[in-house]
Specification:
This protein is of the alpha+beta class. The protein folds into two domains: 107 residues, Immunoglobulin-like (Sandwich), CATH 2.60.40.2250; 169 residues, C8orf32 fold (Roll). Strands 1, 2, 3, 4, 5, 13 and 14 form a seven-stranded antiparallel sheet that branches. Helix 5 links the parallel strand 6 and strand 7. Helix 3 crosses helix 6. The radius of gyration is 20 Å and the shape is globular.
Length: 296
């Protein structure tokens, strides 16, 4: 599959902003099974400075500075992405029992194990707890393979938590989400990550996009897509496997990955600071993920 992904964020301010500084994490990564053919950042007003770098996790992060006075700021990322074979995951049958994977992760000294170990630790929005370990336990009987157990956990989260926009915000902690048993994709991902880390497994937060399909006979609505989030779990000897607890499915060719980190705080699509006398702003976000002919 090939997709044109357009992610537009617009801020409107009631009084003049003298300058804006921000970081953008909206550009797709290069991965096995995913190739970004090209990408463009469009910022209005035109930035005084715009440069791209790789952050600590290898994500494409772009820094910008708008120094001209303005009352509106628009940031748009447009990318053409080719996705193939994303449905290929480490085998559910051949992956090791989860206790074996946990113990190998703790003791191993291989580079991939050392890198994965950071994703077992607490992070700003995901804290290890006995409550999460107890919730995960029914999915992790002794000897069950990692991916079989994670697939079962994903199905339980999908059934036990209600998808309900508006009840949480970007800084909502996992304890609050667990108490409400409701939230959005970010929250579902945080719950799954917290459960896995509480059992000693490595899990990271993945952000990106999912192609949504309109009902039969209905046209695709412009701007109706949204950014998405899911979970990646590390299987020693096999690598990382991605699963989406919001939709209870393994990640496939309909997903585009932009970034990963410990939780949402590492990979917000846009963050920054402004200098203004006002304290109110209006925010509009629109996302389109449109299938297009493969450029090859």
């Amino acid at each position: 599959m090939a997709y044109q992904v357009t992610h537009r964020t617009e801020y409107s301010y009631p009084s003049t902003v003298s300058s804006s500084f921000g970081e953008i994490i909206m550009l797709p990564r290069e991965l096995p099974g995913q190739h970004c053919v090209h990408s463009t950042l469009i910022i209005d007003p035109e930035p005084h400075d715009l440069r791209e770098r790789l952050d600590f996790f290898g994500n494409r992060a772009a820094y910008f500075a708008v120094l001209a006075p303005h009352t509106r700021l628009s940031v748009t990322a447009v990318s053409l992405v080719r996705v193939h074979d994303r449905q290929v995951q480490p085998s559910l049958e051949s992956s090791a029992g989860w206790e074996q994977a946990r113990d190998r992760l703790r003791a191993g000294t291989e580079d991939d194990l050392l890198d994965a170990r950071q994703f077992v630790l607490d992070s700003p929005l995901v804290t290890i707890s006995e409550q999460l370990a107890e919730y995960a336990a029914p999915s992790f009987p002794s000897g069950r393979s990692v991916l079989d157990a994670v697939t079962d956990l994903s199905a339980r989260i999908y059934l036990d938590f209600k998808f309900l926009p508006g009840v949480t915000e970007v800084k909502t902690t996992i304890e609050e989400v667990f108490a409400r048993r409701a939230g959005v994709c970010q929250d579902f991902a945080h719950v799954a990550i917290g459960c896995l880390r509480s059992l000693g497994l490595a899990a990271r937060y993945v952000s990106g996009y999912l192609e949504t399909r309109p009902p039969p006979g209905r046209p695709r609505l412009a701007g109706a897509d949204v950014s998405h989030a899911w979970v990646s779990v590390f299987v020693p000897g096999s690598g990382w496997a991605d699963i989406d607890p919001t939709n209870d499915q393994l990640v496939n060719d309909r997903y585009v990955t932009t970034a990963w980190g410990r939780d949402y705080t590492d990979v917000p699509p846009l963050k920054g600071v402004i200098f203004t006398q006002g304290d109110v702003q209006d925010l509009k976000v629109s996302v389109d993920v449109i299938p297009v002919p493969d450029p090859d």
